[in-house]
Specification:
The complex is a heterodimer. Chain A is α+β, with helices and mostly antiparallel strands. Chain A is built from 5 helices and 5 strands. Chain B has 48 helices and 15 strands. The chains are: A alpha+beta, B alpha+beta.
Chain lengths: 185, 1218
């Protein structure tokens, strides 16, 4: 079970936080500070799992940004580790080369993306379809997307789905196909 | 008004949006707090405006500020306002804010119930989706109760996107409102076989989480999961399924056996580390559940260990960590297989990463044996010295103690060594675990009698060097050991050689700097020491020395009397007086030693930690019963507390001392003695400890350790544990030689130097005899202690509520609360409970059901063909479903017919009331079945079919019911619902050849007036693999397939999946149309590649896609008054038809029109009904359907006469088939 999902930068500023269990607002700030301290104190050659209080932190560092997920002991650490990467891959596609600035300026889009990945702490990984979208998809000027169906290509195309959902446009293609496992890449 | 709006939008231009806010915060690094409070003020202003867009913008900013740690709970009401915005973009912001800041304590949350319900039933799937996502974050027990039924309905939504979310959110609902679990479970189970893999995966996830509590409920699903596991290629799903199996296997060892093989296969084949890790974990769980001693499983355990070794050896630290983590699980049951990798684990102790070192430490815990304990601890001691960072060192320290003390000091062969390790540990700087060491010292000294002498000498040395330990104030943790040292020296002072010296050490002025509780122990134990010295001196007749020691006490004790600590002060002054008195006696030359020692006579035994809890309640004593009747509420509380208390006491004493005659007492005493004799935990009164100690054989042989005082940098007099390792080796060597000798020459036995070995020859060759004859005193337990494991249950477990038995049939009271129309009761309709929320999604749902049913039917047919041939004979005999699935050998023949399956029952009861009738029918059928004595397998299938049928019935019923419900009050459905509707499917055959079958359904698109969506189900009928499917259609002028940008009109659209044999899947294609008044036919081709063992061939299948006019209609509810207005408006064209020879009932007829032609019933009176529908381009279509004896006449009105006539023609065709 996932307890929370955080994106924090090296300075300890929270860029995104999503709690799946209620934590009081002042405790959140404390928790975030401690979590980032824990992660910052670790070097690259240390493993990405930290035992913290009664749960575990799984984190990954992308440039100056840390993605930290708090899980309980029943969760598969490695799967969560993969999940983080999936998430970042999706963001990368959506923002075409995501940066911290993107994250801080488009919090709500990122929340949406996250909600597709992790609906309830029992994360059900979204089933993505494969789309090679045109560059402009973010601006949405070019509505007709080049949708290429293929099950062999395991790159995710959630970004397009996000665009659809953001505009509240029904897209009957959405989420119907399973891709092969994201683990193999 | 208009002006206001214009003004609002102009204002908006100047408002900050989120981007501006973020930018602003970045630009005000110095006075961020000030800037933000300014922003919050602005936001408050914005929230006061009427414009919803402004509000949404404000809430959006608030969400960001909340993330930064600002409390926004004051805006909760505004958030709800934004949530109820009709525009999705705003609604989304509202729900996001709610999900971030609402929680169970938010009081306005109850205001959201209706809004959420509305959104859940919204025709726009994203409204529904966003509501579900938000709800998952802030669902409260109340919301869960009120919305459970709506969410349950959404579990059968047409869109997989919604189904998936609904299934997941059900988990949250179960947590908050556990009563919903039982009614919802059958549907959840259905979702495991959902055609959409995403929904499947969600259901697996939820069941996996549920199965942590009361897994036996889910055991019956094992075959299904097994099938999923062997067929699924999605690793996420596999991980969850495998996790689930891990929870199930402890309940059913046979399941474990069945799992081993596929799991080992997965372990061999998968390249995904997370999956591998999960497999290993489950294999371990399986092996734990299987009783040991299964030779063929040692292979799988070896495989696991090998794989883990690869993980641990990997350069990736994450894998190393997980490898160690999993290894520690194997360790619990198969320590031997792990022990062979000791080298690797010791290596991990040197790892750069602390988490890895800690995991390795965990492993060491289980790897020790009598043989290697010393070696391992030695290694750890080296690490203790090297370790930087106190946390890790503390961890090491606790681990050393854990390792040594585990299972009652099982692996310690030489306690002297252990004591010296403990003493060495006291030299650790800045540890917090002084009390741990102290506890160990006390424990060992008390429980291992043979070691007391040595322990006392060591403790005396510690006391002597107390200044080293207590000198540094930062090291306050460690001074706890002085507590233990003082107590041991005092309690076992008879073993002390230099008692005088120790006493003096304890009386040093420096001691007063120690913490109070330690000083108190010091004071108390000084007297013990003093008493034993006194006795010693008196016995040897050294009166002067005795007086001297008394004087010493009197001189030094006042420093403790002045202590600020009350306990110390009290004890010291008390003792000071006592000693002064002794001094008086001594001066009178009265022998006092005897009496002083009598103060501390007797031995203290260790008491088991749970002893108090285990004291049995005496017979006849009811702890919960009122001793005295509670005062009634009317009485004022403070009136007579005294009498109550008095009374209570009286009764209490009466309870405690029932009058028993002498005889009875004697009998009881006898019985108790008997019991004590049989109770291994009861320590019988034994001769005085000293005596016993001397009786113990071999004590005199304890090697007196020569302490190497020449070692520099060590505290003088402190023992070195290292030497024991050497000693031990020698000893073992000797022992071995001896044993060899013994074997060769039995007679030489007595020549063995150490007596004690004789008593040990029962031990196996591998075992190493301990150096001391150790009798570890077991901890004391009260008489008649009740053995129980109940202590382990955590009463605060949040998931406790989910511990529900799902196999019990549903009771009436367990139905989910459903929102009703107010007039529902008066209607007396048996199924008036159909949830409102279903209304809008009704048609699509039905379609999907049909689709599913079809699929399943097909699958089943195949299964049947296969299985019946293979297993028919066996199956006739099998008893229980699961049992059969699990058993590998044919079970013994039995004539007993299986009980009716609980699943079927559950599924049926789950639909409250509605299905009562079907249920009855089903029961009947079941009975018939039993009469036929058909094979179990067939029967099962039969049942499944029935189940489906009944589902269908339910569905269609619901549907017809809904259409009526839509007309609110005017419906008279009470008389109609008894008749079950035949199953209907809107999917029509598109084309078929030996390889593939295509069925299709066309639906209008609400959002776009010129688009329809064609859903095509592809079913692979062959035994080959079908891939690279491409669908192409020859566009007409009017109707065109929507192709991706850039592709020409002649390009086909690839089907987004491949089809393994026997599998079917659905794809959707969008078509654009200009005119919808005429039916259309499009020619098309499906090309695909058939791949089998012989190779691949290219195949084609031509088809004709028929767009009927009905497919442009969208079921739209309409109220009767609106309907009447529409008819009155007069701008509708009219046309009518009449069909003869109708035999089906009117209800069926209406259902058919509703289903196939997308109409909804507006009003129905007897055999006359008005119906309504709307085309995607906004044409209104109104019908008046009248039923005569054998005929039906339909009058239609529509904006477009062509459309109407075409529609009526289609309807005629449908009806004439009846």
């Amino acid at each position: 079970m996932i307890k929370f999902f955080l994106m924090v930068n090296k300075q300890g500023q929270t860029r995104l936080s999503r709690y799946y269990e209620h934590v009081e607002i002042n405790k959140r700030t404390m928790l975030e500070a401690e979590v980032i301290k824990n992660c910052l104190s670790r070097s690259k050659d240390q493993c990405s799992f930290v035992e913290y209080k009664d749960f575990k932190l799984v984190y990954r560092q992308y440039a100056a940004l840390f993605v930290v997920v708090g899980i309980n002991e029943t969760e598969n650490e490695m799967a969560v580790y993969e999940l983080i990467h999936n998430f970042v891959e999706v963001l990368d596609k959506y923002f075409s080369r995501v940066s911290e600035l993107d994250v801080s300026f488009s919090v709500s889009e990122i929340h949406l993306c996250l909600s597709l990945l992790v609906c309830v702490p029992v994360y059900a990984v979204f089933i993505a379809l494969t789309v090679k979208q045109s560059r402009q998809c973010r601006g949405f000027t070019n509505f007709a997307l080049t949708i290429v169906w293929s099950t062999d290509d395991s790159k995710f195309c959630l970004p397009v789905v996000i665009v659809f959902i953001l505009r509240g446009i029904a897209c009957s293609y959405i989420l119907t196909v399973v891709t092969s496992s994201p683990f193999n890449s | 008004m208009a002006l206001k709006m214009v003004k609002g939008s102009i204002d908006r231009m100047f408002d900050k949006n989120l981007q501006d806010l973020v930018r602003g915060i970045r630009n005000h690094k110095e006075d961020e707090a000030k800037y933000i409070s300014q922003c919050i003020d602005e936001i408050k202003q914005e929230l006061k405006q009427d414009n919803i867009a402004v509000k949404a913008n404000a809430v959006c900013k608030l969400t960001y500020l909340q993330m930064l740690g600002y409390d926004i709970s004051w805006a909760a009401f505004n958030i709800i306002e934004v949530m109820s915005a009709s525009k999705f973009t705003f609604k989304r912001i509202g729900y996001l804010a709610a999900s971030q800041c609402f929680h169970e304590g938010t009081d306005v949350i109850m205001l959201t119930t209706n809004q959420i319900r509305k959104d859940l039933s919204s025709p726009n799937q994203y409204d529904t989706g966003v509501a579900l996502t938000g709800l998952s974050c802030f669902v409260t027990p109340d919301l869960a109760r009120d919305l459970a039924n709506d969410i349950m309905t959404l579990m059968s939504h047409t869109k997989p996107y919604i189904r998936k979310k609904a299934v997941l959110i059900m988990y949250k609902v179960f947590l908050k409102y556990p009563e919903s679990l039982r009614p919802a479970f059958p549907r959840l189970k259905e979702k495991l076989e959902d055609p959409d893999p995403g929904v499947q995966s969600a259901a697996v996830n939820v069941i996996c989480e549920l199965a942590r509590r009361n897994p036996k409920n889910y055991l019956s699903l094992a075959p299904l999961f097994f099938k999923l596991m062997t067929s699924s290629t999605n690793n996420w799903v596999l991980i969850k399924i495998i996790k689930l199996f891990g929870a199930l296997t402890p309940l059913e060892p046979r399941l474990g056996k069945k799992l081993i093989e596929p799991l080992t296969n997965l372990i061999h084949s998968t390249s995904a580390m997370s999956l591998l890790y999960e497999c290993v974990n489950t294999v371990i769980a399986v092996l734990i559940s299987l009783s040991s001693g299964m030779p063929n499983h040692s292979a799988s355990i070896q495989l696991c260990v090998q794989k883990l070794r690869i993980l641990i050896e990997d350069s990736d630290q994450n894998l190393k960590y997980l490898g160690l983590l999993a290894m520690s699980k194997i360790l619990k049951t198969h320590p031997k297989s792990v022990q062979s990798h000791k080298d690797l684990i010791l290596q991990c102790l040197d790892d750069k990463d602390e988490s890895i070192r800690l995991r390795a430490l965990d492993l060491l815990y289980g790897m020790v044996s009598k043989k290697n304990l010393m070696e391992i601890v030695k290694k750890l001691m080296i690490h203790v010295d090297k370790a930087e960072g106190t946390t890790y060192r503390d961890e090491l320290l606790t681990k050393i103690i854990d390792i040594c003390s585990q299972s009652n000091y099982q692996y310690i062969t030489n306690f002297e060594w252990y004591i010296s390790i403990l003493v060495e540990l006291t030299r650790l700087e800045g540890t917090r675990h002084g009390h741990l060491i102290a506890a160990q010292m006390l424990d060992v000294a008390i429980r291992v009698k043979a070691i007391r002498k040595f322990a006392v000498s060591q403790m005396a040395m510690l006391l002597d060097n107390a200044h080293l330990i207590a000198s540094n104030t930062q090291r306050n943790g460690i001074c706890e050991v002085l507590y233990a040292a003082a107590w041991i020296c005092g309690e076992f002072s008879e073993h002390l050689e230099e008692a005088n010296q120790t006493l003096e050490a304890m009386l040093r002025p420096k001691v007063t700097t120690l913490p109070g509780h330690i000083q108190a122990v010091y004071v108390q134990n000084m007297v013990k020491l003093y008493a034993s010295i006194l006795q010693q001196k008196e016995q040897s007749g050294e009166k002067e020395a005795a007086q001297e020691i008394t004087q010493l006490m009197i001189d030094r004790l006042p420093q403790f009397v002045q202590s600020a600590d009350l306990e110390v002060q009290e004890r010291a002054s008390c003792i000071l007086q006592l000693i002064k008195y002794i001094q008086k006696l001594q001066i009178k030359e009265v022998p006092v030693a005897e009496e002083v020692t009598a103060l501390f006579a007797g031995e203290l035994n260790p008491v088991a930690p749970k002893a108090q809890k285990k004291v049995p309640v005496p017979e006849g004593l009811d702890l919960d019963a009122w001793i005295n009747e509670p005062p009634s509420d009317s009485e004022s509380e403070d009136e007579k507390p005294k009498t109550i208390f008095h009374d209570e006491e009286q009764r209490h004493s009466r309870h405690r001392q029932p009058e028993i005659d002498e005889e009875e007492l004697a009998r009881r005493r006898e019985a108790r003695k008997q019991e004590q004799a049989n109770n291994p935990f009861y320590i019988k009164s034994s001769p005085s400890p000293q005596k016993r100690y001397q009786d113990t054989p071999g004590v005199e042989h304890i090697p007196v350790v020569q302490i190497d005082l020449s070692v520099p940098l060590k505290v003088p007099g402190m023992p070195m544990s290292d030497q024991y390792v050497k000693l031990e080796e020698e000893r073992r060597h000797k022992q071995k030689l001896e044993k060899d000798k013994k074997k060769k020459k039995q007679k030489k036995e007595k020549r063995g130097k150490h007596h004690r070995h004789n008593s040990l020859h029962t031990e196996s060759e591998e075992d190493i005899a301990p150096a001391h004859h150790v009798d570890i005193i077991t901890e004391e337990m009260p008489e008649n202690a009740l053995p129980s494991d109940e202590d382990d249950k955590d009463p605060n477990d949040p998931y406790k509520a989910l511990d529900i038995d799902l196999d019990k049939p549903l009771a009436d009271s367990e139905k989910l609360p459903v929102q009703r129309h107010r007039n529902v009761e008066t209607l007396k309709s048996p199924d008036s409970e159909a949830p409102l929320a279903e209304k809008k999604s009704k048609k699509p749902k039905k379609k999907e059901k049909k689709h599913k049913e079809k699929e399943r039917d097909k699958g089943k047919k195949k299964e049947k063909e296969k299985k019946v041939v293979e297993e028919e004979e066996e199956e006739e005999k099998k008893g229980d479903d699961l049992d059969f699935w699990l058993s590998t050998a044919p079970p013994p023949a039995s004539t007993a017919q299986p009980q009716s399956e609980p699943e079927v029952g559950a599924a049926v009861v789950a639909e409250p009331q509605e299905v009562k009738k079907e249920e009855r029918e089903e029961r009947d059928e079941e009975e018939d079945d039993e009469g036929k004595k058909s094979s179990k397998h067939k029967k099962k299938k039969h049942k499944k079919e029935k189940e489906e049928k009944s589902k269908d019935k339910k569905k269609s019923k619901k549907k017809s019911h809904h259409s009526e419900e839509e007309t609110a009050g005017s419906v008279q459905n009470g008389t109609l619902d008894d008749e079950p509707l035949p199953p209907m499917s809107s999917y029509r055959l598109l084309a078929e050849n030996p390889y593939i079958k295509m069925t299709y359904d066309i639906q209008g698109n609400l959002q776009n007036d010129s688009q329809v969506t064609v859903s095509v189900i592809f079913e692979n009928k062959s035994t080959s693999f079908l891939k690279s499917m491409e669908l192409n259609v020859l566009d007409s002028l009017n109707t065109k397939m929507l192709r991706p940008e850039g592709s020409s009109v002649h390009d086909g659209i690839p089907v987004p999946f491949q089809l393994p044999p026997g599998i079917s899947n659905e794809a959707q294609f969008v078509f654009t149309l200009q005119s919808i008044v005429m039916a259309q036919k499009l020619k098309g081709t499906l090309s695909f590649i058939v791949k089998n063992d012989e190779g691949s061939t290219h195949e084609k299948l031509d088809f004709k896609l028929h767009f009927s006019c009905a497919s442009y209609l969208i079921t739209t509810p309409c109220y009767s008054d609106a309907f009447a207005k529409l008819l009155e408006s007069g701008d509708l064209h009219m046309s009518s038809i009449k069909v003869d020879g109708i035999s089906i009932s009117f209800q069926h007829l209406l259902a058919k029109i509703c289903f196939h032609h997308h109409f909804s019933v507006v009003e129905r009176v007897d055999s006359c009904a008005s119906m309504y529908s709307r085309s995607i381009q906004g044409h209104h279509v109104c019908l008046l359907v009248k039923k005569g004896e054998n005929s039906v006449s339909i009058d239609g009105k529509c904006n477009d006469s062509t459309l109407l006539s075409n529609l009526l023609d289609e309807m005629k065709e449908t009806l004439s088939k009846c």
